[in-house]
Amino acid sequence: MTDLLDLAPLSPMHETVRRPLYTETTTSQALYLPIAPPTLGTAGAIIGRELYSGKAFIYCPFSAFGDGLPGGNMIVMGDTGRGKSALTKTYAARQIRLGRQVVVLDTKEQKEREEGEWAALGRSLTGKAPVKFAPGGSRGASCINPMDPAIAGKRQVELVRTIVELGLGKALDEFAGSALRIAIRRAHQRAGELGRTPVLADVSAALRSPEESDATAKKRTRDELLGDGLEASYVLDRLCGSEQDATGDLTGMLDGPTSLGVDLDADMIVFDLTKVPSGGVAMTILVAVISVFLEEVWLRPLCECGTEPGQHNRVVVDANSGAWELGPNPGSGCRRYTQRKRILVCEEAWHILGTPQLASLLEKFLKFARGYGLSCIFIVHHLSDIDDSPETQAALKMADTIVIYSQKKAEAEATVARLGLPSWTAEHIMRLRRGIALWKVGEVIYPGVQHLLVEAEQHLCFSSGSMSDLTSTSPDAE
Q1: CATH class for the domain made up of 26-142+262-305+337-463
Q2: Which residues, 6 or more positions from 10, have their beta carbon under 8 angstroms from its beta carbon?
Q3: What InterPro entries does this protein map onto (predicted)?
Q4: Where in the chain is the domain with CATH 3.40.50.300?
Q5: SS3 (DSSP) at 344
Q6: How far is residue 393's CA from residue 387's CA, in Å, rounded to a whole number?
Q7: Mean pLDDT, the chain, as a whole number?
Q8: pTM across the whole model
């Protein structure tokens, strides 16, 4: 008889090994049920199904807020072609059906359609074409003015300073910053005397022609004040060009009066940035200006019934303290003021998260998103595309929902380490199939969420037409 000790029943070959979570057999799903994470409720947009429990996966940051989800910001990442854009497009469309408003910064062009990926979806939902930007301007292109009075004074100064610093490639010192603030004030004054709205060229002109009274107020000579702002004026000239030079990086996009044909009440607004050079200073500055414009103009207080707060009655909730809240609006029949919820989607978001000055500019945008009733969604390929600056880290920490599609080994390990995820998730992320992602909502991990599309959504979400074989994708193909 064979000695039982010779079989080495405790050796690794004979150990009982539990199947890892990436399997999808009926048995593994049944074993997963007792330890499955809780559902996110029944209110919100349907994403698909949670594979290991078989439950429907429904997600809405506005419905789940306060119940383990401190904020509504989301970051979606993964290799190309794994399903990031399809998820965000269908999610946005489904949220619109729940009464939300969506703005998209679209930087991904579909060459065969000669437009951005989101253009078709935007037209199907609103019947409106995207708002296009193009260097040098062109027929149908839009311009947005950083000096527009719709942008509040202090915020405008911050924005123009950011434009100059991004163009300069470094931060302005105190002397240059002071000269710029004075020039912005003088640009408004001089343009007002001419009966028009100031533009960036007016700021550049004011930097080169400071007034004696401004210099005296700062205990500087006029020549010293001129020297303080001279470099900034050259940067604005290079960016905006002039009547004699139309080669500026921002010409036709930020150098004139605002010409945005935007319906701020539309369910979806798509800003088409596909013609702007990717990774250049123009793209970074344009995103910064659009973001601030949206903050000052689009994110105005508005009830879900379509009326402003002032049209709602005040209701005292505590007679002792005098505390009150906004209640019904007799005119619209609304019973209680409820802030309309909004979603901002940023494609190729490394333009934002990878630029410290831009991340810092948007910090207020993200930090106070809850007060705005706003959810920001950033789409990136890998976290390695983003630097490790304090501003970027702060932005990443404000993403309370993280969606990770399949990544290669090095990227998966780097992602897990940077986000502080459990070590087992690295190998799990590598094995995820197309359309399946790991979700982290607050502190809860859902290891396998399968995104499902209905037939009507597929043609609006397919973004790989140039790489597909017609015979393999045709409905008539076998």
Answers
A1: alpha beta
A2: none
A3: P-loop_NTPase
A4: 26-142+262-305+337-463
A5: strand
A6: 9
A7: 82
A8: 0.80
